[in-house]
């Protein structure tokens, strides 16, 4: 085990992994940042050792927090292709454009990396029930890995979540609840916190303050990119951004390899958000203190529902990633996202959901703004598959109940729909 300790990003409290921490006991919504013993890692593994291992996420196990291989819960996540996008590059006037195709993961998005680590830690800790707040992809990933580990999953999704994502959850055996979203505050997070804090469920959303382990999974995206580029670091990496967790995780992967001396520089990290919900990029534009990001003032309005976090839960770390790498933020319209979806599919054969295509929309906008040199090596993360809303599965999967963000209504519907009685 190479974890030294965990440190709350708000109050600074230190935890050992043996304490099995998930959230700071001070309830200050500080993320428990995991700190590694880099000297021990350097002594345990060398870059040439990686070539002898299978090309999947757990190839980088020394940089992940799971203390023993027997706890790993895997569906073969990671090891996704880095596609040299020749036709798209020609259209955009670029020489070296690459697409990191995260749609190849088991449930169709990068969230599988997050939940493989998270569920592995839940298994190590001995949890039997997990809960998630998600627009769909994180919940689907948690449900899949929960099913494999024998952990019961409860998922709170927005009432406007696509049925394809809900059907996926139901097939995995998750208990799914649609929650009405009428105010700026995310009601799915409110319900998740209730089950975690009052009833002892393992919280596993894809953002840091409620689970410090899942954010470690996306580190491996950066590590794979470096290997796939022949141990070279790209000049810019475009990241679709909601809670800023993916952005933070990918940055941390480059950080880890800089800290062990395997690389000696960082790419410019670029955060891409939709016009209808961009609190993180707004914060970057205003150059605010990372600990003083304002939430979006109204419910999100965008086709990129995976980027609908009205408060960027990992925005503090995400802003530091931008500041540390001379990175920047880009805001794109729904129309620009749709155009990016068409370009990915028609020129490179990649069918991405709106959130998954937002990174390309951001690159096109950045080119127009003069932020990208035509000779640079650019990587765009394509984060989620487009086949998420097949209406045909509704008949065989059934439907999920819709509730207000109210615990009593949740308990009634849980009993009515899923025969679960908490009394």
From TrEMBL:
Domain Tryptophan synthase beta chain-like PALP: 73-384
Residues that bear N6-(pyridoxal phosphate)lysine: 111
Residues in coiled coil: none
Cofactor dependence: pyridoxal 5'-phosphate
Keyword field: Amino-acid biosynthesis, Lyase, Pyridoxal phosphate, Threonine biosynthesis
UniProt superkingdom: Archaea
Pathway info: Amino-acid biosynthesis; L-threonine biosynthesis; L-threonine from L-aspartate: step 5/5
EC number of the protein: 4.2.3.1
Binding, pyridoxal 5'-phosphate: 137, 383
Keyword Amino-acid biosynthesis in annotation: yes
GO biological process: isoleucine biosynthetic process; L-serine catabolic process; L-threonine catabolic process; threonine biosynthetic process
An example molecular function term from Gene Ontology annotations: L-serine ammonia-lyase activity
Swiss-Prot/TrEMBL catalytic activity: O-phospho-L-homoserine + H2O = L-threonine + phosphate
Keyword Ribosomal protein part of the UniProt annotation: no
Family the entry assigns: Belongs to the threonine synthase family.
Function: Catalyzes the gamma-elimination of phosphate from L-phosphohomoserine and the beta-addition of water to produce L-threonine.
UniProt protein name: Threonine synthase
